[in-house]
Amino acid sequence: MKNVIDSFVSLGHWPSAGSFGFNTDILATNPINLSVVLGVLIYFGKGVLNDLLDNRKQRILNTIQNSEELRKGAIEQLERARARLRKVEMEADEYRMNGYSEIEREKQNLINATSNSLEQLENYKNETLQFEQQRAINQVRQRVFQQALQGALGTLNSCLNSELHFRTIRANIGILGAMQEITD
């Protein structure tokens, strides 16, 4: 390892062979070398650097312009969506109000129809009751009349002779026939 280090150290002490050689004074050579390198870079790299910066600037400007256009488009879409939302909300409110009105109207119609049906049922019930009462009264009349007639016939049979009996029966049959026609 010592041999490798000695060989690098010996490079700094080359004997000069004429006008060509290495200057090992670091403080004297670095500023000159740096100024030469920077001068060459500035002279030849100036155009390339300007082109690169111009291209980068143009891409940034294009990106900003595209971003602005996209932002404007997004704002327009947002405004259209908000307008559509307001329209849909108004339609929903209208449907809701119409729905409530329709429900109230249907409710009132149903109440009215039910009330009418109840009135008709009450009328039918009353008519049926009157009819049944009249029928019951007529049946009771007939039974009372038949019982009275049988009682009268029984009394007459015991008190009357045959001829008077036949005349009374014919008269009663005539009265019954007349009553029958009246009740029909």
Task: Note down, in words, how this protein is organized.
By secondary structure, the protein is mainly alpha-helical. The longest helix has about 130 residues. It is rod-shaped. About 0% of the residues are buried. About 5% of the residues have low confidence.
Head-to-tail CA distance between termini: 153 Å
Poorly predicted regions? 7-17
Helix-residue proportion: over 70%
Specify Rg, calculated over alpha carbons. 66 Å
Annotation, overall tally of beta strands: 0
Q: How many strands, which pairing sense, and closed or not: the largest β-sheet? A: none
Helix count? Answer: 3
Approximately what portion of the residues adopt beta-strand conformation? under 5%
Which whole number gives the mean pLDDT?
Answer: 81
> What is the string of SSEs from the N terminus onward?
HHH
Derived structural class: mainly alpha
**Apparent shape:** rod-shaped
Show the helix and strand layout.
Blueprint: H1 2-11, H2 26-159, H3 162-183
Keywords: ATP synthesis, CF(0), Chloroplast, Coiled coil, Hydrogen ion transport, Ion transport, Membrane, Plastid, Thylakoid, Transmembrane, Transmembrane helix, Transport
Membrane topology: Single-pass membrane protein
Organism: Musa velutina
